[in-house]
Specification:
heterodimer; A: about 425 residues; alpha/beta; D-Maltodextrin-Binding Protein, domain 2; six-stranded mixed β-sheet; three-stranded antiparallel β-sheet; 11 strands; about 10% strand; globular; B: about 280 residues; mainly alpha; MetI-like fold; 13 helices; disordered C terminus
């Protein structure tokens, strides 16, 4: 009995000591501390953040940044942290979650802090995009850092083999897809996304085809079922299983990338965020992959989804907002911006980096960056007003519309029926959240 | 006695072919993971498909152990799992002894309650547990995972242990008590040596559950240096890309401890599981 009691006492002591021993004591420290959590981290990205933090701490020696890199999508963990008051002072933001954070009061209004900065380092279009998430008053709740450029990834070597010019218009695009398909050789002209993310992809392409730039009309009706979109879907989804593989109906991003990288598909739609992966798989052979802007619309314009700028925000429960702001500005608009965006593979929102011939944006080894930069800075590029400001927009596309796209691909419903239902769902959502 | 041709045919179709199919489904992913772990990253997703690694490389293992933090994640997994499992084993031995040898009011109700705790999906209780850990000051400490692993493992393992203990005839206890043993001496010197297979079964199940746990450490811990293997491997998957080679090497590394454990306790495990299954 004595032995057992002693054993239990030792175990209890060990656990208690361990609990105490692994804590971090910040008491008695005169430094100002700010914590930052970032999700979708890899070990390389954590090294990059340590480099940025070292540069920041050298510039602001009285501020210590405590960094936590989280794997995968950490939205749920962040929400729990917000509610429990244990969240970080600074967090990275994507267009997917910022509307919810603003709605719930999790993030600080930084409009005045940005105005006090008194310069125009960041593109106006990026700031406008960021303020659009505040439906009440156009206030700024996060500072944009960089964006992915949505494009078509193509096989230039296959185009060259067939003697095809790169498509400038949608009719040329459809002709090229058909010409590039060689089923006997196991090659398809395109890989379509029918699984997770199908609706988001299709939406971008539809508006790019039609040239429509308003997602809702003046009566609050969603424009997604416009006849030009029906026409596009009939052609585009009609490629399925004729000029694409049968399995595409379930393809998410991983499978889509696999089809492109293993030489099964000539064209996929994604963004510049996947460039590093293509570069690695094709051993840096730029003749095997290239980013192509979406073809011009029926109206002759180039229309893209409104750029969704990633960025950084400050938690409402942050004790030292001034120190947190200094770090946010440093990583989005100052020295940290180039290191951060280059590593993540984003186009920066800092005009001086975009225009600097020596920056990574204009590196000849990364031509997709220059392509993206040229398109987003071009005054001829139009952006349709994607309603990412509605908190449920992204989740609705995934939970309700992806399935409709799949049904249309399978031929169970017509494109008209799919788009009518899509429009009805979004119109209803707009009435609630718009 | 000779097996007839008819019986052989029945055995082939009813036993061997289904078993081969099952083994195929179990072994193929493991084989594929092993193969990927020995391939160069450029050979994993490429236009030229190969089943076996060609050329063979150890770069995924060396990279993950030298430049990555796999060793650190491995150590964290070991600390959490071993600490939790030792505590669970000791506690459930005592619980099992009490439930199998003593009669007290509400015993059956207590067992039903323990069973009921197993019906709740863990995701439902994760938020209150997190708030509890926050109030205890244990957020971002390995102890939070250890304590919750212990708490969540005890009910099921207790019922399992109770089954093993009930399989030992009470006459043995009575004989020990006649010889002057106290209750605790009876437990530790008489009953425990008889139920070693049962203890190993409990130990193994508890270890595997702790080793594979993802949700608890991901929720309670915030520092990357404290994550266990199950969470650390997730660093190789981002929205845009997956390091298949590193992930495969990490997965193979992660299954080695449970594999060794099962290899060692396998013969006890089978007898232990069957003993627990038929004794009530």
């Amino acid at each position: 009995m004595k032995k057992l009691t002693a054993l239990l006492a030792i175990m209890l002591a060990a656990v208690t000591l361990f609990a105490a021993g692994t804590g971090e004591d910040k008491g008695g420290d005169s430094m100002r501390h700010v914590s930052i959590w970032m999700d979708d981290m890899t070990e390389d990205r954590q090294d990059m953040m340590e480099e940025i933090i070292a540069a920041f701490e050298a510039k602001y020696p009285d501020i210590k940044v405590d960094f936590t890199g989280l794997p995968g999508d950490a939205t749920d963990k962040l929400m729990l942290g917000f509610e429990a008051g244990t969240g970080p002072d600074i967090l990275n933001i994507t267009s997917k979650n910022i509307a919810t954070y603003i709605e719930n009061g999790y993030v600080v209004d930084i409009t005045d802090m940005y105005a006090e900065q008194g310069n125009d380092a960041i593109l106006d279009s990026a700031i406008e995009s960021a303020t659009s998430f505040d439906r009440d008053g156009g206030r700024l709740y996060y500072l944009p850092s960089g964006t992915n450029f949505y494009c078509l990834w193509i096989r230039p070597d296959w185009f060259a083999e067939k003697g095809l010019a790169l498509p400038e218009t949608w009719p040329e695009f459809f002709d090229d897809v058909k010409a590039l398909t060689d089923k006997d050789a196991g090659r398809y002209g395109i890989a379509l996304r029918g699984g997770s993310g199908a609706a988001t992809n299709l939406e971008m392409l539809m508006y790019s085809y039609s040239g429509i730039t308003n997602y809702f009309d003046e009566n609050g009706q969603c424009t997604v079922n416009d006849p030009r979109h029906v026409e596009f879907c009939e052609q585009y989804l009609g490629l399925y299983n004729n000029y694409s593989g049968e399995g595409d109906i379930n393809y998410g991003w991983g499978q889509l990338a696999g089809a492109f990288q293993t030489g099964t598909a000539a064209i996929i739609q994604h963004n510049t965020g996947s460039a590093a992966d293509h570069y690695k798989v094709f051993n840096g052979d730029l003749s095997k992959f290239a980013a192509l802007p979406f073809p011009k619309s029926l109206e002759g314009t180039r229309v893209m989804q409104r750029l969704s700028w990633d960025g950084f925000a400050i938690n409402s429960s942050c004790d030292d907002v001034d120190a947190a702001w200094k770090f946010v500005y440093f990583i989005c608009a100052e020295e940290g911006a180039e290191i951060y965006n280059e590593n993540i593979g984003l186009l920066p929102c800092v005009a001086s980096i975009l225009n600097d011939p020596e920056s990574y944006v204009n590196d000849p080894e990364k031509p997709w960056m220059a392509t993206g930069s040229e398109v987003i800075l071009s005054p001829d590029t139009l952006f349709y007003d994607t309603p990412t400001y509605m908190p449920s927009y992204s989740s609705t596309l995934t939970s309700e519309i992806d399935g409709l796209v799949q049904e249309a691909m399978a031929g169970r419903i017509s494109c008209q029926e799919m788009l009518d239902e899509w429009a009805a769902i979004m119109t209803e959502l707009y009435a609630e959240e718009g | 006695m000779k097996t007839s041709w008819k019986e052989k045919t029945i055995n082939i179709f009813v036993i061997y072919i289904p078993l081969i199919v099952l083994v195929f489904f179990v072994v193929t992913p493991i084989f594929w993971t092993l193969s990927l772990s020995f391939k160069h990253s450029s050979d994993i997703v490429s236009e030229h498909f190969t089943i076996l690694p060609d050329p063979f490389t150890l770069e995924n293992y060396t990279k993950s152990w030298s430049t990555g933090r796999i060793s650190q994640y491995f150590m964290n997994s070991a600390i959490i799992s071993i600490s939790a499992v030792i505590c669970v084993t000791i506690i459930v031995i005592l619980n099992g002894f009490a439930l199998s040898r003593f009669r007290f009011r509400g015993k059956n109700l207590f067992m039903v309650f323990m069973l009921m705790t197993q019906m709740l999906p863990r995701i439902i209780i994760i938020s209150p547990l997190y708030l509890l850990m926050r109030d205890l000051g244990l957020v971002d400490k390995l102890a939070s995972c250890i304590i919750v692993e212990i708490a969540t493992a005890i009910p099921f393992q207790t019922l399992l242990m109770k089954g093993f203990m009930s399989g030992v005839p009470k006459e043995i206890d009575e004989a020990a008590e006649i010889d002057g043993c106290t209750k605790m001496q009876t437990l530790f010197t008489v009953i425990l040596p008889v139920i070693v297979p049962g203890i190993l079964t409990v130990f193994s199940f508890a270890f595997i559950n702790c080793w594979n746990e993802y949700l608890l450490p991901y929720t309670f811990l915030s520092s990357g240096s404290k994550f266990p293997l199950s969470v650390g491997l997730r660093y190789m998957i981002t929205q845009m890309s997956i390091d298949y080679g590193g992930l495969a090497a990490g997965a193979i590394t992660a299954i080695i401890p449970p594999l060794c454990l099962f290899g060692y306790v396998q013969r006890y495990l089978v007898s232990g599981m069957s003993a627990g299954a038929i004794k009530g």
